[in-house]
C-alpha cells in the first residue's frame, strides 16, 4: 500500500474503491485488500480518505470489501444473555430485603404467625387451596444460619445470573421457577410436609445458569461440563441433614 496526498498517475478516479472519513475503517479495508494481494493506494482530501486500485482490479477489490462487510455485519456478536461486562445488578440491595424481613418475622417457632400462615404446608395447599404458600415460603427462613447461607452463597449465584440476563428478568424467573419447584415438591411427599427458605430459588438460579451454558456451547464436551457443574453444585450445597429439603433443591 502506498499513501499519496495528491492525485497522481498511480491511480485514476475510475479506480476509486471507496471513501470514508474514518481512518480506522480505511485501515480495515486496506487490510482486506492486502490479504488478497491487491495493490492499492490511499489519498486524503480535507479529512476525506479515498481508497484506489488499478482500474482493472476495481471490480475485484469492491467485491472483496463487500464480502468482508457482509461477513462481519453482526460482529462483534451481542451476548443475548447479558447487558455487558460493565453491568452490575443491585444484588446486595435486593438481598438486604430478606434480611430486613427476617428481622420482622424472626425464627421458625410453633407459635410464630408468619410461619403458621406462610410456610409451605402440603395439606394446607392441597386441601384448603392456600396456594400463596408456594410463594411466601420462599421469603421465610428458619433461623440466622439458614438466612446467612442463602444470602451469602445464594447471593453470589444470583448475582451472576442477573448479571447475565438482567435484574428484572432474573428475579422474575427466580420466583417463578421457585414457586413451580415448591408446587412439584409437595407431590414428592405423600404425607404432611413443611418447608421454608429461599434456597429453592437459589437452586433454580443454578439450574438456569447451567442451562444458559449448555445452550451457549457448541461442543458436546462443553455441554457435559455445564451439566456436571450443576450436578456438583447440587451435591455440594444439598447436604444429607434432616432439615435440608433435597426435593425442593432438586
How does the SSE layout of this entry go?
Layout: E1 2-3, E2 16-20, H1 23-35, E3 40-45, E4 48-53, H2 58-71, H3 91-105, H4 113-118, E5 120-121, H5 122-128, H6 133-136, H7 144-165, H8 167-186, E6 194-195, H9 199-216, H10 220-237, H11 246-249
Parallel strand pairs: 1-3
Antiparallel strand pairs: 2-4, 3-4, 5-6
Helix pairs in contact: 3-7, 7-8, 7-9, 8-9, 9-10
Short structural description:
The protein is of the alpha+beta class. Helix content is 56%, strand content 9%. The termini are far apart.
Question: What would you say this structure looks like, in words?
Answer:
With 250 residues, this protein is an alpha+beta fold. The protein contains eleven helices and six strands. Helix 7 packs across helix 8, helix 7 packs parallel to helix 9 (199-216) and helix 8 crosses helix 9. It has helices spanning 23-35, 58-71, 91-105, 113-118, 122-128, 133-136, 144-165, 167-186, 199-216, 220-237, 246-249, and strands spanning 2-3, 16-20, 40-45, 48-53, 120-121, 194-195. Helices cover 56% and strands 9% of the residues.
Keywords, separated by commas or semicolons:
11 helices; 9% strand; disordered N terminus; two-stranded antiparallel sheet; alpha+beta; elongated; 250 residues; four-stranded mixed sheet
Cα-to-Cα separation, first versus last residue: 63 Å
Strand numbers in spatial order across the main sheet: 1-3-4-2
Question: Could you give a short account of the major beta sheet?
Answer: 4 strands, mixed
Strand content: 5-15%
Could you tell me the radius of gyration in angstroms? 30 Å
Averaged pLDDT: 81
What is the number of beta strands? Answer: 6
Amino acid at each position: 500500500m502506498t499513501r499519496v496526498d495528491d492525485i497522481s498517475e498511480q491511480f485514476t478516479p475510475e479506480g476509486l474503491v471507496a471513501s470514508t472519513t474514518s481512518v480506522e475503517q480505511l485501515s480495515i479495508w486496506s487490510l482486506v485488500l492486502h490479504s488478497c494481494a491487491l495493490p492499492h493506494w490511499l489519498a486524503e482530501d480535507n479529512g476525506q480518505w479515498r481508497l484506489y486500485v488499478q482500474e482493472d482490479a476495481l471490480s475485484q477489490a469492491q467485491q472483496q470489501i463487500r464480502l468482508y462487510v457482509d461477513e462481519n455485519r453482526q460482529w462483534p456478536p451481542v451476548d443475548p444473555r447479558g447487558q455487558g461486562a460493565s453491568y452490575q445488578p443491585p444484588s446486595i440491595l435486593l438481598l438486604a430485603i430478606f434480611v430486613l424481613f427476617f428481622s420482622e418475622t424472626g425464627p421458625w417457632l410453633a407459635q410464630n404467625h408468619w410461619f403458621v400462615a406462610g410456610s409451605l404446608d402440603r395439606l394446607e395447599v392441597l386441601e384448603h387451596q392456600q396456594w400463596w404458600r408456594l410463594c411466601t415460603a420462599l421469603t421465610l427462613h428458619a433461623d440466622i444460619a439458614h438466612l446467612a447461607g442463602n444470602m451469602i452463597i445464594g447471593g453470589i449465584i444470583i448475582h451472576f445470573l442477573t448479571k447475565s440476563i438482567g435484574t428484572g428478568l432474573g428475579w422474575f424467573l427466580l420466583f417463578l421457577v421457585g414457586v413451580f419447584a415448591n408446587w412439584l415438591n409437595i407431590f414428592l411427599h405423600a404425607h404432611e410436609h413443611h418447608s421454608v427458605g429461599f434456597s429453592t430459588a437459589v437452586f433454580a438460579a443454578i439450574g438456569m445458569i447451567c442451562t444458559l451454558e449448555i445452550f451457549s456451547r457448541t461442543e458436546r464436551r462443553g455441554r457435559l461440563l455445564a451439566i456436571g457443574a450443576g450436578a456438583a453444585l447440587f451435591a455440594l450445597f444439598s447436604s444429607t441433614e434432616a432439615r435440608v429439603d433435597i426435593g425442593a433443591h432438586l
